[in-house]
Write a structure and sequence with these properties.
Blueprint (H helix, E strand, L loop, with lengths): L2 H15 L2 E2 H8 L3 H13 L4 E3 L2 E3 L8 H4 L4 H12 L6 E5 L3 H9 L6 E5 L2 H6 L6 E5 L3 E3 L4 E3 H8 L4 E7 L2 E3 L3 E4 L2 H12 L1 E8 L10 E2 L8 E4 L8 H11 L2 E4 L1
Parallel strand pairs: 4-5, 4-9, 5-6, 9-12, 12-14, 14-15
Antiparallel strand pairs: 1-3, 2-3, 7-8, 10-11, 11-13
Length: about 260
């Protein structure tokens, strides 16, 4: 079998089953595991899969640059944002993550809602400037331009000195096996710090992120209150995920 044929086979397997187990593919095709791993390296280099121990998972499309991500699934992000915004109670404090879905949440908050919003995203803060009853706190630090958020030691230190009722956090991948992931280690660390400063944490996950994975783990499921997604109930990765989360006491809110 030529390399191109093997690549097509692997991508088909990834689409059907949501994962690739290298040893199983090697046995099925009668080739070495090293050959499968080389093929997976090639596919990963083209952004077509995310390599993990023992094989690969679907790569998240949400690791693209910020400008590109604004065009990905805008309707789904608005639906997720509407559900998330409804969780923000009057006079409560909200930690709002950065990213395009968080920006949609900022835009979905009622302009007359009295609340405190703490964010490390300049774009989220700017979107709330015309909300007269929202008190804004912008956490500073080195700006990670890919997601338009502050990260690094200064941002982490600032975040450790705030507390909130609710944290709404974005990720690039939500997978039954890989869990909650994102594409940058410092951004993942910042998300963990933000989530730790709130009484409840909900994950914002539009449908294109379900069943996909990125390189860095964000949070373990026991640290999460709920998942908000617009993914179709028939999504092949959503069923196993809902069962897993329900067993852990994590709410799944459809958008």
């Amino acid at each position: 079998m030529l390399a191109a044929e093997r690549h097509a086979h692997l991508l088909g397997l990834l689409a059907r089953e949501g994962k690739i187990v290298a040893k199983d593919v090697a046995a099925d095709l009668g080739i070495s595991e090293d050959s499968v791993r080389r093929d997976l390296r090639d596919l990963a280099a083209d952004g077509l899969c995310q390599r993990v121990y023992g094989g690969a998972l679907p790569a998240s499309p949400a690791v693209a640059d910020y400008a590109t991500r604004t065009t990905v699934a805008p309707d789904g992000k608005r639906r997720v944002a509407a559900v998330a915004a409804a969780l923000v109670r009057p006079d409560s404090a909200l930690i709002l993550d950065g990213g395009t879905t968080a920006l949609a949440v900022a835009r979905a908050l009622p302009p007359d809602l009295p609340c405190t919003v703490i964010t490390h995203s300049p774009t989220v803060a700017a979107a709330l400037l015309d909300h007269p009853r929202a008190e804004l706190y912008l956490l500073g630090g080195r700006v990670f331009k890919h997601s338009a958020v502050a990260c690094g030691a200064a941002a982490v230190e600032a975040a450790q000195n705030v507390s909130a009722d609710l944290c709404l956090i974005g990720v690039t991948g939500v997978h039954p096996e890989a869990g909650l992931t994102t594409g940058d280690a410092e951004e993942a660390a910042m998300k963990r710090v933000l989530a730790a400063r709130a009484a409840e944490t909900y994950v914002l996950a539009s449908s294109e992120k379900i069943g996909t994975a990125s390189r860095y783990r964000v949070l373990p499921w026991p640290d999460v209150t709920g998942l908000i997604t617009d993914a179709d109930p028939g999504h092949p990765a959503l069923g196993p995920l809902v069962g897993q989360l329900t067993a852990r006491g994590v709410r799944v809110l459809p958008a």
